[in-house]
Amino acid sequence: MERLNLPFIAQRRNECKLTLQEMAEALGFRNASTYLKYEKGEYDFKANHLPVLAKKLRCNMLDLFIRMVC
């Protein structure tokens, strides 16, 4: 089972010097506060968001996940 690595997403956004508003616009949200709710885990990113996140964060889509071992 895998889940999104939200701390990685936030850290990578900062490393890439991307604003919350830039991420919001890339994902089709109107404002930064909506995106922040996704980044903090209040809302769940949808499957169609993942390729956009990976492209904006300049990483592999697998990097967005925490690998869980059962």
Number of H- or I-type helical stretches: 4
Number of domains: 1
Termini gap: 8 Å
Uncertain runs are: none
Which class best fits the helix and strand makeup? mainly alpha
Give the overall pLDDT as a whole number: 95
Strand runs, count: 2
| Percent in helix | 40-55%
Profile the largest sheet.
2 strands, antiparallel
CATH architectural designation: Orthogonal Bundle
Quick one: overall form?
globular
What Rg is obtained from the alpha carbons, in whole angstroms?
Answer: 11 Å
Secondary-structure element series: EHHHHE
Name the CATH class. Answer: Mainly Alpha
CATH topology: 434 Repressor (Amino-terminal Domain)
Strand order of the largest sheet: 1-2
Instruction: State the CATH superfamily name.
Output: lambda repressor-like DNA-binding domains
Q: Which percent range describes the beta-strand content?
A: 5-15%
Structure overview:
It is a single chain. The chain is 50% helix and 9% strand. The chain has four helices and two strands, in the order βααααβ. It has a single domain, classed as 434 Repressor (Amino-terminal Domain) (Orthogonal Bundle), CATH 1.10.260. It is mainly alpha-helical and 70 residues long. The mean pLDDT is 95. The protein has a two-stranded antiparallel sheet with strand order 1-2.
